[in-house]
């Protein structure tokens, strides 16, 4: 099983497949690399696809350090190093988007293009704040079985995929899950978005109303091109429920970046 080298720090589990420009996917708290099964199957024909388990999730070690977005971004960099990848397209789903934003801000030379599905630069609306608070409370009550049932049913149609995702979510310790939600709630990148130098793609479900307004900060502050795409009929779970549409959007964006169509 591929892990980052032990001498570099907490061992992070990752998987790779395909050939082409590197494309790494970062998942929301507890959901693990299995979140992106539908992306790997389709996009490995065009990319060198990297998926991983964040520290404390899935097969990755938890480590002893207190969690920060900067630490998680550094973990992604260590995965890229383990794969001998100098720069990659980075995709973050939901709260995973905060990690890849931090990566693009602190390590701009490692990011060719930034892709966020249901992304936000901070959490300031009541609806989104409440989503995080519910997650924190659920984790602190150790109701991870309930949470895994809700998340797996919301994301996957097929029973075998629901069962795998449910089991994966339950691997995360409740205390670590609460910590992940807490740093997500407190994360603020709005004032630092000007440090993002690569093209940005924002993907939102057309019915995912409570995050739509977050696109404005990116369009106002990121100096590089910012594109926004709405997926018709979709709510928040675009990577799993509308994978065909999302995969086509990602492929088109990366191809245009590769040929230089999206420049300052």
TrEMBL record:
Family annotation (Pfam families): Abhydrolase_1
GO molecular function, one term: hydrolase activity
SUPFAM superfamilies for this protein: alpha/beta-Hydrolases
Keyword set, alphabetical order: Hydrolase
GO cellular component, one term: membrane
The AB hydrolase-1 domain, residue ranges: 21-217
Protein name: Pimeloyl-ACP methyl ester carboxylesterase
């Amino acid at each position: 099983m591929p892990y980052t080298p032990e001498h570099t720090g907490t061992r992070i589990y990752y998987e790779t497949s395909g050939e082409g420009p590197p494309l790494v996917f970062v998942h929301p708290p507890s959901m693990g690399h299995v979140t992106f099964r539908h992306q790997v199957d389709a996009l490995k024909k065009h990319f060198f696809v990297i998926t991983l388990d964040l520290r404390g999730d899935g097969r990755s070690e938890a480590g002893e350090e207190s969690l920060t977005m900067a630490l998680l971004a550094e973990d992604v960099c260590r995965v890229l190093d383990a794969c001998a990848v100098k720069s990659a397209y980075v995709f973050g789903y939901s709260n995973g988007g905060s990690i890849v934003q931090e990566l693009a801000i602190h390590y701009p030379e490692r990011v060719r293009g930034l892709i966020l599905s249901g992304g936000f630069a901070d959490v300031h609306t009541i609806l989104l704040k409440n989503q995080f608070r519910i997650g924190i409370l659920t984790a602190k009550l150790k109701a991870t079985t309930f949470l895994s049932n809700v998340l797996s049913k919301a994301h996957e149609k097929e029973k075998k995929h629901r069962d795998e995702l449910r089991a994966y979510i339950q691997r995360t310790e409740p205390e670590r899950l609460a910590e992940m939600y807490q740093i997500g709630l407190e994360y603020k990148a709005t004032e630092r978005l000007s440090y993002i130098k690569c093209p940005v793609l924002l993907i939102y479900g057309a019915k995912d109303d409570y995050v739509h307004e977050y696109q404005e900060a990116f369009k106002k502050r990121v100096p590089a091109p910012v594109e926004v795409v709405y997926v018709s009929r979709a709510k928040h779970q675009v990577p799993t429920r509308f994978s065909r549409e999302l995969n086509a959007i990602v492929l088109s964006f990366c191809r245009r970046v590769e040929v230089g169509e999206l420049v300052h």
